[in-house]
Design goal:
16 helices; alpha+beta; 668 residues; elongated; disordered N terminus
Length: 668
């Protein structure tokens, strides 16, 4: 740091009425002021009860080839607020969408008063206009004890008042008045409130007491009340002394505070203390730079100390990535990913947990669909199909593996998802009846006389079973609407009548959502991409089992099914397990299918009819828009590292287990 011992400043300017003479101005003094660094506006109230609202405009100029910053003053408002004999204790102002707001705590006739004024600018046809007092309201009568401190939030829509008994009161602006919405006591009766300070955005309120304790409250929806109130967010370590100075960052939820020689920089979202130390001088006041890269300290001997602040990513931490965070607007701590917002005051939410959950969810449903089909197909092809049939099936499956995933994602999003949106009962019918029909046909075939079965060449049993399976599939599909008419009745929100609609029945019966692009679509599409990989490796493993084992089993009187399930499958377990794990790795890293076939929303819901967002899809969506070397940019690379580590350990575990299984069956 370095000290600035002296600095040349511009001559003082008048902050009160332009019509006042210099002799009159000498007797007028500022009683209190408040500065808004976001809009560079400053409000004063003098000992005559007059408020002067000015805007400071900074401009760069070049004089003798040297860049200098000069300021100009623009008068916005000048009006009488309180009686001249009143003694002002605190002035607060706010600049919102509905005009300017001013709150004043003052002493009149030995009693403390609280007055709130709302100022609006009457626009003329030509664009000009004057500021006028829209409404004035006395709030001291709504308080159980005299006011002590005040603070505006959310652009003047929120006013928080602390009284002298240590209670906090939340007023919300409604039309032309402030209405009391909530009262609470943050600290015990032995430590009264000393400060009310809003963080960036005006939705998180930091309360400090005389003992140096800090508690953060955030506006969130209370389900029991059905409206927004201040909810306890988190507490911070006590400084053991009354807070003497405070400032908030204009870039994030960081803030600094302290007393005497103690300076502490903390982060409101994660509740972490970023930096805290004892300095070798007493601090009178402290501020952040607008870009959050410097800290300015004013010592008691009126020296300015400038510190360089190196904290480019305060919102990124282990707790932010993997812990539950109480974000503004929420009613409880949650795992949330939301990297961008609609305003500069937006708070990035960078939890990896919803993305990890989405990756496992998509993989689970893909494997749930693909593993049974792929393994049974591999078992049939290697043990029961005719060699000519096997020579046709295996190359076809291998060609399927080369189909681009973007094509599968495109078909899933634009063809499959709309197709099955209202056909879920038919899918459920096929899901149960098709396997049952296949087993029933196999059982019937096994009980046919040998003389009849000899007409069907070994390995071609599918020729006569396939037409029956097609018929069963058709009947099951047509059975779906009948099932919907009897079992999936829901109340139509428009008419109030019962109708047969699975899309309405599911949310009403389960309390979860039903989306067109969901995990079911992903399971079909991504399962179709994984089936060839699992089939090829599993079929090779099953075909590699020595024929002597199969011959010995058949010679001892075992049927082909008994041989396949009790001899061949155990011997090929290692290869089959490897095929599943390789399919798992393929599903975890899939990008385009998940990106196109789901809503791509980072939610934590195992509902099969809702979407998700995976780590790989998140990279594809966010990386092109992420600022280079910014927090989001680095977080995305961290997500890529997580994806790599996850797939690496999955494959490593699979390989170790495969070797163990191989060693177990080494004697075979």
């Amino acid at each position: 740091f370095w000290d600035i011992k002296s600095q040349k400043v511009n001559p003082p300017i008048s902050i009160f009425s332009d019509s006042e003479s210099s002799s009159e101005q000498a007797h007028v003094q500022a009683s209190s002021f408040h500065y808004l660094p976001e809009s560079q506006e400053l409000a004063f109230i003098n000992d005559q009860g007059q408020v002067s609202w000015i805007k400071i405009i900074y401009e760069a100029s070049f004089i003798n080839n040297q860049r200098k910053i000069i300021h100009q003053i623009e008068r916005q408002v000048f009006f009488d607020a309180i009686k001249p004999e009143s003694k002002v204790k605190q002035l607060q102002m706010s600049n919102g969408e509905e005009g300017h707001q001013v709150a004043i705590i003052y002493q009149e006739d030995s009693s403390f008063k609280l007055k709130v004024l709302n100022l609006k600018k009457e626009e003329s046809f030509l664009g000009g206009g004057n500021w006028e007092v829209d409404f004035s309201q006395d709030l001291d009568s709504a308080l159980p004890s005299p006011p002590k401190a005040i603070a505006f939030g959310e652009g003047g829509k929120v006013l928080v008042v602390a009284d002298q008994e240590g209670s906090t009161h939340y007023f919300a602006k409604e039309d032309s008045s402030y209405v009391l919405k909530q009262s609470w006591q943050a600290f015990g009766p032995h430590a009264s409130l000393s400060r009310l300070d809003f963080l960036l955005g005006g939705s998180s309120l930091l309360l400090s007491n005389d003992l140096g304790e800090n508690k953060l409250y955030s506006l969130g929806m209370d389900p029991s009340l059905g409206r927004r109130i201040f909810l306890f967010n988190k507490g911070f370590p006590s400084l053991k002394h009354k807070i003497e100075f405070f400032d908030r960052s204009l870039r994030n939820r960081a803030f600094l505070l302290g007393h005497d020689q103690v300076l502490s920089i903390r982060y409101g979202t994660t509740g972490e203390t970023l930096w805290e130390n004892h300095l070798d001088f007493s601090i009178k006041d402290a501020v952040f730079s607008k870009k959050y890269h410097r800290v300015g300290l004013l010592s008691q001997d009126n020296k300015i100390h400038l510190y360089e602040l190196q904290d480019p990513h305060p919102e990124a931490s282990f707790k932010a990535f993997f812990g539950k965070i109480f974000y503004e607007g929420q009613s409880e701590p949650k795992y949330t990913w939301q990297s961008t917002g609609g305003s500069d005051a937006f708070e990035p939410k960078l939890s990896m947990v919803p993305l990890l959950f989405g990756s496992f969810k998509g993989t689970f449903y893909a494997l749930l669909f693909s593993v049974p089909i792929a393994l049974l197909a591999a078992l049939y092809t290697s043990q029961f199909a005719h060699p000519k049939t096997r020579g046709l099936i295996k190359p076809t499956m291998e060609i399927m593996a080369s189909l681009p995933s973007v094509i599968l994602g495109f078909l899933a999003a634009l063809w499959l998802a709309p197709l099955i949106e209202d056909k879920v009962p038919s899918l459920l019918s096929c899901f149960f009846l098709l396997p049952f029909g296949a087993f029933l046909l196999g059982e019937i075939f096994s009980h046919l006389p040998i003389s009849t079965r000899h007409f069907i060449k070994e390995g071609y049993e599918w020729v006569w079973i396939a037409p029956f399976l097609i018929l069963i599939t058709y009947l099951a599909w047509e059975l779906g609407p009948i099932l919907e008419q009897h079992f999936f009745l829901a109340t139509d929100p428009n008419t109030g009548k019962l109708i047969a609609d699975f899309r309405l029945w599911w949310p009403q019966a389960t309390g979860t959502s039903y989306e067109q692009r969901n995990a079911l679509v992903v399971g079909f599409a991504m399962g179709f991409a994984v089936i060839p990989i699992i089939f090829t490796i599993a079929e090779d493993s099953l075909s590699s089992v020595p024929k002597s084992l199969q011959s010995a089993s058949l010679a001892l009187g075992a049927s082909r099914w008994q041989t396949a399930f009790k001899v061949i499958l155990p011997a090929a377990t290692g290869g089959i397990f490897s095929s599943i794990m390789i399919g798992l790795g393929r599903a975890v890293g899939e990008t385009m299918i998940v990106l196109m076939a789901t809503g791509n929303t980072p939610i934590m819901d195992f509902n099969i009819f809702s979407g998700m967002r995976t780590l790989s899809a998140n990279l594809a969506v966010e990386l092109p828009e992420a600022p280079f070397h910014g927090t989001l940019y680095r977080t995305l690379f961290f997500g890529a590292l997580l994806l790599f580590v996850m797939t690496f350990f999955l494959n490593l575990s699979a390989e170790l287990l495969r070797h163990r299984i191989k060693k177990k069956f080494k004697g075979l």
